[in-house]
Input
Amino acid sequence: MASRGIAVEGVDASAAMVDRLRAKPGGDSIPVTLGDMAQVPVSGRFGLVYLVFNTLFGLLSQARQAECFASVARVLDPGGMFVIECFVPDLTRFDHDQRVQARSVTEESAIIEVSVHDRVRQRVTTQMITLDGQGTHLRPVAIRYTYPAELDLMAAAAGLRLAGRYAGWDRRPFTSASDGHVSVYQRA
Output
């Protein structure tokens, strides 16, 4: 987007991710604020704010997710858009609120995903376990999922309205069979 002349700013909590951006062509010219995405620590107004690849679910409570919606609404221009991409939770993946899955098995290594589901808090805690000649390596992942209807309530509480929801970036219709969505909220 920046290479097409569109002003772009970023927010990231990870200095390592900002370093990866800086290493890309043109990445050193994009302003990035290190901070908490729930607080949207930037000044100015924006016509578009987006969170893709389930990023919203990295905020581990309903209150933090709602704070993100409110913070985005604060920096959006009137009529500005907030676009999120999220999966639709499929709780049939869990047996008694847990799951173990072999992700990759070769002669040199195995990657196993072990997850537990907390229905009350809508949280999934996962360890990606790699076993190889160097030992055991753990990569933890925690998310708090939300269903589209809950996202719509958070948006409404922040002064945003649903302008469109699609099953993907190609704007396929969103249905009860969709496993993901791109939701577009507009500031009044």
In short: The longest helix spans residues 62-75. The mean pLDDT is 96. Strands lie at 10-12, 32-34, 46-51, 76-87, 98-105, 110-118, 123-132, 135-144, 160-166, 180-187.
